[in-house]
Amino acid sequence: MPLSSIDGAGTSGGLTILRFAIVTLLAALLLFPGRAEAQLDGSGRHIAMALVAESDAPAPGNEVTIAIAARPQPGWHGYWRNPGEAGIAPRAAWTLPEGASVGDLQYPVPQTLTISGIMNYVYEGPFALLTRLSVPKDAKPGTALPISVKLDYLVCTNEICVPEKTELSARLTVGDGAISPERRARFDRWRRALPKPLGSQAAFATDSDGALRIAIPFPADAALGDAAWFFPFKSGAIDYAAPQRIGRDGDRLLIATKAGEAPGNAFGGVLKTGDATGLIVTAKRGAVPAGPANGFDWALLLTALGGAILGGLILNIMPCVFPILSLKALGLARAGETEAHARGEALAYSAGVVLTCVALGGVLLGLRAGGAAAGWAFQLQNPAIIAFLLMLVTAIALNLAGLFEIAMPAFVGRMASGGADSGKAGAFATGALAAFIATPCTGPFMGAALGAALVLPWYGALAIFAGLGVGLALPFLAIGFIPALRRRLPKPGAWMATARHILSVPMFVTALALSWILGRQAGADGMAAGLGAALLLALGLWWSGTRQQRGKAGAMIPALILGVVALGALFVIRPVATSHTTEGASLGAQPFSEAKLAELRGQGRPVFAFFTADWCLTCKVNEKAAIETQTVAKAFADHDVAVLVGDWTDGDPELGRFIEAHNRAGVPLYLWYAPGDPRPRVLPQLLTPAILAGLPEAGVRGAD
Predict the structure, then answer these.
(1) In the chain, what are the domains?
(2) Where are the annotated coiled coils located (predicted)?
């Protein structure tokens, strides 16, 4: 039997990796001689491995997926195809029957592991390396098809490394290619962990100071996980241990980091977009927006700061902020208000706003420094915090509606009774509340400004968050320092009660928006739990309000008790995985399945099937510019065209197999099924309304 060699490393490492590998191997052999020898006889391995075929009876001329299933012992880890600054990638040598062949090993998305400042790309839990075995066309059914592979790999803890070897084998028999449901499900789980091809070209640029910027096409509304990271395939492309700052610039991601010794003119890698999901990216040297990866860009800072101030100013008219600002502003119209008091309250309110914005920005930067790809309103990624905001906004709305009053603590009352500090504590708290409540809202100019903050150094980023707070505080600050503005405010009177009731309406609208966000994050059950908690709190506030009207002592006790009970809902609300794909809704699109496709074709209807993903920019452009247009909708309706959409966002293996069957590695894929034609026509990856509208009218036949 001939010997086929597959090098899992892909590319050679640098001198640093070579030195580390030599030292590691010598240390392992010297310190653990008995253990190293034990690897050869199959005992004591720290990564248990098995060779598994998806079908034990592959058909002649077909391919069958082969997996090297690995399970490290607790505390140990194996390495990705590019191990990082240290380690050794697995090396595989295959022994196959005459005429058979295997492809390159496919690796799942790895994890980062930093030890003493050295970055490693590893697997700390079970993983599987996949490849495709091609069966000879002339193989006879019933013929034995033995395969084996010799593996050399390194396994480590945080303190020691041990080189291991193993030889795995499997005996297949040429047959009909049948796959058991259990085996199919197992391989589908492994396929989901593989990165998916992005399908769009990325670009990178380097600066004289060693900064590296990568621009990756990625739709602005596509979700990005909390641990986004770029893993290069080859050594020398990037500085492994350098931090990666990831921000959005419209329909692309900008990664700011440090270049390696030899980035060359092109390199590939994997962009991790979730806990176990990723995209295969190919980047070529080209134009990338300037970013301060390793320096300070004053022009960018000043531009972003202006946008942040303007964006914060506009936030004041949003439903979640306007009622609070209005009531606080009207409070300054009290009869007998002094200049010193007005200015003191304005400064205290502004301090509360700015410090809260800076604190939220600091937490955001801390999360990103820890590897999370968080953005503004990052707390809204947590359904429990959304539910808390829902309860808080509901309480504010009911307070404005006059259901209850918040009793002022005695020490605050004494502070407000006179002196230069009169009312400052309440103004500061109101400003902090306004800034916190503002996080669900976004306004013009904010996106670009806060996106710039995420690629600036931390001190520049905090300045932008402070600028957002300044913009948010500006109206009240102006009222406090400009007497002419205060004189234009209406004088206190009975009308203020009506105004309060009217201002409760936008707060109720904000509560409705938060419940919708909660439903998107936690599903129907989570939304029901959040609304139930808000209802329970409202019941407690109503009860307390009736006690207040009767002048009873401890009126707020029922609200406090039921509020604490309602907070228990925060511990049961969990995020759920949902698909938000709405592509093709204007065409009456249905979810794709092979059974549904067969049913529609059996009815003799023409079918347009398209396959998309939230992270596929080309897909989104085609959907907006061509598919979801009135021209196409009319043409399809006139000819009774059925539309099927396959959402490959989560890497659905069933859709993946269907896509591969049409000689495509990923999305977009567009198929036109003409009535009576046994095979579909594969359409171009860039569509126009004319192409689609002309399909049913031309009665297209044939396949590419």
Answers:
(1) 3-193 (2.60.40.1250), 202-285 (2.60.40), 298-571 (no CATH), 585-698 (3.40.30.10)
(2) none
> Which residues have a Cβ under 8 Å from the Cβ of 186 and sit 6 or more positions away?
52
CB 237 within 8 A of CB 195: no
Helix (H, G, I), strand (E, B) or coil at 12: coil
User: Tens digits of per-residue pLDDT, 648-703?
Assistant: 877 788 888 898 888 777 888 999 999 988 889 999 888 999 999 999 876 544 43
Cα separation, 340 vs 338, whole angstroms = 5
Pairing of strands 63-72, 127-134: antiparallel
Distance CA 120, CA 635 (A): 54
Considering the chain, what percentage of its residues have pLDDT values greater than 90?
34
Pair type for strands 642-647 and 229-232: unpaired
- Rounded-to-integer distance, Cα 205 and Cα 209, Å: 12
CB–CB of 650/192 below 8 Å?
yes
What gap in Å lies between CA 240 and CA 14, rounded to an integer? 12
> Residue 693 in 3-state DSSP?
helix
pTM for the full predicted model? 0.55
Q: What span, in angstroms and rounded, lies between the C-alpha atoms of 288 and 157?
A: 39
What are the angstrom distances between the C-alpha of 364 and each of 358, 378, 383? Answer: 10, 7, 17
Residue 441, token pair as written in the block: 């809202």
Exposed/middle/buried for residue 387 (C-beta within 10 Å: 0-12, 13-18, 19+): buried
pLDDT of residue 448: 56
The helix or strand, by DSSP H or E, that contains position 171, with its residue range, turns out to be strand 161-173
Query: What is the DSSP-derived secondary structure letter of residue 418?
Result: S
Per residue in 50-66, pLDDT (tens digit) is 999 999 999 999 999 99
